[in-house]
Amino acid sequence: MQNQNYRVLIADDHAILRDGLRALLSASPELEIVGEASDGQEAIRLAGELSPNLLLIDLSMPRMNGTEAIQVIRGRHPNLKIIALTVHRTEEYVRAALDAGANGYILKDDTHAELLTAIQAVLKGQTYLSPCICGHVVSSYLDQREGGRVTTSWDVLTLRERQVIKLIAEGNSNKMIARALSISVKTVEKHRGNLMKKLDLHSASKITAYAIEHSLIGA
């Protein structure tokens, strides 16, 4: 975050937590808290009215839960960065939030420093998951593998496509991937299109969820 003010919307049904987030984030000169929502429907309305750059949203809220709100907001505001800030650490919640369009997933018992790191990463266009979540989801995947329930979609990808999907999940742009693999951006775009078609994945968040499932990225 450099030489730019980012407008932040906070959505959580607990006033005390909203107050704490406002105090924490207001200490950063690059972040401006422009609004607070206490439920999913209000988050949707304020996202349209206030034009924030970043939304911090709880997943368990009245009237409409955070995951449903994320999906609606992502459809209306594709450039808005969204971080799920929640107590839920199970694989189902993580996958649902990423599939809905979240760019990051942070636990409420993570440190303030971890939250600020997540915000910085997401505002730079990266996907960020709490280290605790990464470890939990990968462990779940390993348990499934031992139980013989692993999907075989990974087998349809070429070696280069596997390299590309890992780099996408780590938050790299097409240009960065091209530089890392010593290939052209056009070639990266071709591999990206092919792997997304093969796996029926149509967003960076879904690619990240897939990469976690297959233990490509972790804690």
Number of domains: 2
Question: What name is given to the CATH topology of the largest domain?
Answer: Rossmann fold
| Residues in helices, as a percent range | 40-55%
The order of strands across the largest sheet is 2-1-3-4-5-6
Distance between the termini: 24 Å
Poorly predicted segments: 148-152
Largest sheet properties: 6 strands, parallel
Average per-residue pLDDT, rounded, comes to 84
Q: What Rg is obtained from the alpha carbons, in whole angstroms? A: 18 Å
- Please provide the ordered H/E string of secondary-structure elements: EHEHEHEHEHEHHHHH
Structural category is alpha/beta
Q: How many DSSP-defined strands?
A: 6
Count of helix runs: 10
Q: Look at the structure and name the CATH superfamily of the largest domain.
A: Response regulator
Label the CATH architecture of the largest domain.
Answer: 3-Layer(aba) Sandwich
Q: Hey, roughly how much beta strand do the residues contain?
A: 5-15%
What does this structure look like?
This protein has 219 residues and is of the alpha/beta class. It has 2 domains: 6-136, Rossmann fold (3-Layer(aba) Sandwich); 151-213, Winged helix-like DNA-binding domain superfamily/Winged helix DNA-binding domain (Arc Repressor Mutant, subunit A). It contains 10 helices and 6 strands. The protein has helices at residues 15-26, 40-50, 66-76, 91-100, 112-123, 131-146, 159-169, 174-181, 185-199, 204-213, and strands at residues 6-11, 31-37, 54-57, 81-86, 104-107, 128-129. Strands 2-1-3-4-5-6 form a 6-stranded parallel sheet, with helices on both faces. The model is unreliable at 148-152 (pLDDT under 50).
